[in-house]
Amino acid sequence: MSDLSANKGSNKKKPRNNASKKAKIETLIKPQEDEALLSPDTEAGEMQSEDIADEMTSAAPDADEQKIELLAFKLSNEEYVLDINRIKEIIRPVEITRVPRVPSYIKGIISLRGVIVPVYNLKNRLGLSEANEFSNDSQKRILIVNFDEELIGIIVDAVTGVVKINEDIIEPTPQIIKGVDAEYLKGVARTNNRLLILLNLDRVLKKDN
């Protein structure tokens, strides 16, 4: 009887523990001190991860295991998304050192804690207009992403938060978007009156031959 009592309730479903996932997200966007950029006029500490922990962790506790988690951001008044696992951190805009004889969509390079990181002008890469009447420079961010075992920075107009969606709601890219940058897109998802455009990050960051 003692053995049965000891084991009673052992098969009860344990509550989901999101502590490790929350810690990962907080680490992603936790402000950190960075080294100075290549320009000697830039003060150390200017490059800091954007602290949006509240937004990124608010969706974590009751996450559906079948849903995918995406980071949403604005480009030319459209909302794009990337798999959050591809993003290492988010930093505020900093001075970028230009590099000669590189494709026009590569803005230049920055030094992130001693690591040289190329920065892409994502609008240029996607063929989007630089003009944006709703653009606010104070909201611009650089997403540091993992690509081919290297770090790449991509400039976005604003980070709008984290969304979770079921993969089955992803639809083919509409023709109106295909005409511009179809090869860089995976599809679109409509959720809560939002149209989210899924980027094909590997294709976007792959240098043209």
Q: If you had to describe this structure to a student in words, what would you say it looks like?
A:
It contains six helices and eleven strands. It has 209 residues and is α+β, with helices and mostly antiparallel strands. The chain has a six-stranded mixed sheet with strand order 8-1-2-11-10-9. A five-stranded mixed sheet has the order 3-6-7-5-4. A hairpin with a 2-residue loop joins β1 (67-75) and β2. The N and C termini lie far apart (73 Å).
Give a quick set of tags describing it.
single chain; 209 residues; alpha+beta; 6-stranded mixed sheet
Q: Which structural category fits the helices and strands?
A: alpha+beta
Number of DSSP-assigned strands: 11
Shape: globular
Major β-sheet strand ordering? 8-1-2-11-10-9
User: What order do the SSEs take from the amino end to the carboxyl end, as H and E?
Assistant: HHHEEEEEHEEEEHEEH
Cα Rg: 20 Å
Strand proportion: 25-35%
Number of helices: 6
Largest sheet: 6 strands, mixed
Q: Bin the helical content.
A: 10-25%
Please give the alpha-carbon distance between the first and last residues.
Answer: 73 Å
- The average pLDDT value, as a whole number, equals 75
**Low-confidence parts, pLDDT < 50 over ≥5 residues?**
4-10, 29-61
Q: What is the chains' assembly state?
A: single chain
